[in-house]
Amino acid sequence: MLPTRTHQSRTRRRALLAGVVTVATAALGIGLSTQFASAQQTTLRGAADALNKDIGVAVNYNLLQSSAQYRELVATEFNSLTAENAMKWDATEPSDGNYTFTQADAIVDFAEDNGQTVHGHTFVWHQQTPSWVQNLSASALQTAMVDHINTLANRYEGRVDSWDVVNEVVSDSNGAMRDSFWLQKLGEGYITTAFQTARAADPNADLYINDYSIEGQNAKSNKIYSIAQGLVNQGLLDGVGFQSHLILGQVPSDMEANLQRFVNLGLKVRITELDIRLQTPADANELAQQASDYARVANICKNLADCSGITVWGVRDGDSWVPGVFPGYGAPLLFNDDYSKKPAYTSVLNAWGGTVTNPTTTPGTTTPGTTTPPPTGSGCTATLSVQSPWNTGATYAGTVKANQNLSGWTVSWTWPGSERISNAWSIQGTLTGATVTGSNAAYNGTLASGQSTTFGFNITKPDGATASVPTVTCTPA
Predict the structure, then answer these.
(1) Which segments constitute the GH10 domain (predicted)?
(2) In terms of CB atoms within 10 Å, which end of the chain has fewer, N or C?
(3) pLDDT digits (tens, 9 = 90+) for 245-302
(4) Which residues are catalytic, by number?
(5) What pTM was estimated for this model as a whole?
(6) Domain 380-476 belongs to what topology?
């Protein structure tokens, strides 16, 4: 059994963190979001909080810095953050002893400002480790590893709740150890040394071993199980991270039983990097299957008391790593590129006991004949289309195209009936009346000639009639 250690509950830590505003956050222009405070079970965050589980997301520092819409969605929908790259070795110590924490600090500050926990990723990995580390002698390599873990763990002690201590240490075939520079120079004992160092540096952080293709019982997960047993016997391991970079329709049939055997060791389990890729372009049937797959994973975690949560590896499909590594595949996440919710979003929310208030959107699906013809001859043109109608409302997508270089734009239209905007994104202004006048947000106003940007909104339509699509006028700012 693991030795007893003191941990604050996730709920209490978020409550303690919520009021802190830091200089690094202000420097990014990232203000405190208050929406999470009122979030109930109509968001992923509300549903996860009700279950006392994490719903996390891998955060891209550059998007967090540049996009207000990205920041707002991250703050509203998720209660846990993982730095996508900002805590890896190449980002924090690019040269020997020269540490830089600008990006990592900003993500931790943002989490604290918004009452979110942080899952640290990662201390020891064979990739994204600078060449100066890989070229060290065995003794110098171990010294560098210990120093690196101590520096990061000490800096974020009490602020990062859990860490992926070692990442992807088992090969993809036959359950052998990965033949990395770590193994070649230090032998398998580097894993134990890493966990011993992390445990001493931050005794209250949960320590995880993290890997992919271990969701089902196979040679690779059996090896992770064996490593986990040894670490548990030494009181060094708190949990196992299952990356779960899955393929459409291939959630392992024995995933729940496999996770349960790790729980039986006294460990937490965590879905750490979830995405479910499919062949693009996606059709409605594929998106429905993806939603079913996401729901299955969500239910597995929900039904395991010791599943600490799920982290989705990115926000929007277009920001995912998948297309760059698996050509022809993509669309693996919960949100479309315009931040609208996919069917997979709804399936996860429903699986965790929530209720969707805004309909999900399938790209390319519109009511026939509901796209406005753009006016011609102006510095910009704009169109609206109905993406997802329901009895008393609809979701609309808007597109602005620049016919010249723009530093900003304004669109306007008048509703012919009872349509009224209830909430909107990527647009601001006078939006709620019969006549709408909206302008660009801070991040989508500058366009080169020929470029386009998008905005969107939901409407209510109390009379239940078919949602109309008015003609839109676009004017350069």
Answers:
(1) 41-351
(2) N
(3) 999 999 999 999 999 999 999 999 999 999 999 999 999 999 999 999 999 999 999 9
(4) 273
(5) 0.73
(6) Immunoglobulin-like (2.60.40)
CATH-assigned architecture of domain 10-351: Alpha-Beta Barrel (3.20)
The pLDDT tens digits for 410-430 are 999 999 888 999 888 788 999
Do 265 and 229 contact (CB within 8 A), yes or no?
yes
